[in-house]
Amino acid sequence: MTDVLIRGGRPWGLASPADLLVRDGRIHRVGPSLDAPGALVLDVSGQLVLPGLVDAHCHLDKTLYGGPWVPHSADDSLAGRIANDLGRRAELGVPSAERAAALLARMSEAGTTHVRTHTDIDPSVGLRGVEAVREAAARSPVHVQQVAFPQHGVLTNPGTADLLAEALRSGVEAIGGLDPAGVDRDPVRHLDLIFGLADRFGARIDIHLHDGGSLGGWELELITERTKALGLGGRVTVSHAYALGELGEAAQDRLIQGFVDAGVAIATAAVYSYPVPPVKKLRAAGVTVACGHDGIRDLWGPYGSGDMLERAMHLAYRSTFRRDEDIELALEAATVGGARALGLPGYGLAPGDRADLVVVPASGPGEAVVVHPRRTLVMKDGVVLHN
Ligand SMILES: [Zn+2]
């Protein structure tokens, strides 16, 4: 593998420009005016070099991306969207390896190098979504981590728990959950089942929690308690966590301290007008915050571009971030925060890290997020994908 010298860029976090020498898929050296005889030289003078973007919450199995436009047909209720999804997915040919591969190709062009995708598991679809996503991932340079996701309930949908176990047995890395109270009507049993499966198979956990207010706050406590009791710190994420954005300061502070103590991460997509978790407060306390798109062009909604810088802009905007140092928190969520939530080893721009990176013509993180400009270089494992 030929060495690659990325010349003259400004690696995020460094005060001055530096070259990056890439060797055997990893960042070998970082410094000014590196000498690298025989290396392929890519001049990115004056541009911002970021580690590969991480979409920490998407749904590749549901996407209609790459196909014809499908006008949205669900009403605005959760029940209506679930019915729309179940009623039309077969007619529209999802889950589809083709569609998932088309979306991964778009994500890769936009500089995403890692995704965590929640794949529906239920008795009617079985493990077909898992297989479609695996097939798409095998064709893509993007690293894909799947979550076995009970979109239509576990306790309320007999047969799902056995299928979740089967998915984990087959190598799916993480297990999901969904509104243990709002959907499954029994949060204690739901969470005991999900955490039990995670413990049995050594899986990571990522739970969709839309339940709001004090009900959602109580479920966050139940998740925190179980994370601590099983010693799963650093391996548990709560996605959306709308309740956290709705509760008063005192309740927020108590829950956040629990996340710090137990090692629970928060993932947000900052979608529509749903409450956004208090990113600045979470980060100040040391909680990992990750960002993702959620659904992209699917039966749940027509939006989503596959561009994580654009998604970070939505997060910054919804968080009312205006200063560069605040907007940078959204970029952190779309990079290092996601990497922590997924448990990616060797992520970053330091010598020894995997050479997964993206270059943009921007003066710094603020401009990169707000403008989300074209990607001038995307590299994964030291291989130039887009240039
Ligand atoms: Zn989701």
- What sort of overall outline do the alpha carbons produce when their principal axes are compared? globular
Strand content: 15-25%
Q: What is the number of helical segments per DSSP (H or I, 4+ residues)?
A: 12
* Main sheet attributes: strand count, strand direction, barrel closure: 8 strands, parallel
Bound molecules: zinc ion
Given as residue ranges, the uncertain stretches (5+ residues, pLDDT < 50) are none
Helix content: 25-40%
Mean pLDDT: 97
- Strand numbers in spatial order across the main sheet: 7-8-9-10-11-12-13-14
The chain-level structural class is alpha/beta
**Rg calculated over all Cα atoms:** 20 Å
| N- to C-terminal distance | 18 Å
Summarize the helix and strand pattern as letters.
EEEEEEEHHEHEHEHEHEHHEHEHHEHEE
Total beta strands: 17
Give an overview in words.
With 387 residues, the protein is an alpha/beta fold. 36% of the residues lie in helices and 21% in strands. The protein has twelve helices and 17 strands. It has helices at residues 78-88, 97-109, 128-138, 160-169, 187-201, 213-229, 242-246, 249-262, 279-285, 308-318, 324-342, 365-371, and strands at residues 4-7, 10-11, 19-23, 26-31, 40-43, 48-51, 53-58, 112-120, 143-149, 174-178, 204-208, 236-239, 264-268, 289-291, 357-360, 377-380, 383-386. The strands form three sheets. It has an eight-stranded parallel beta sheet. Strands 2-6-15-16-17 form a five-stranded mixed beta sheet, with no helix packed on it. The chain binds zinc ion (ZN). Residues 57, 59, 118, 208, 294 line the site of zinc ion (ZN).
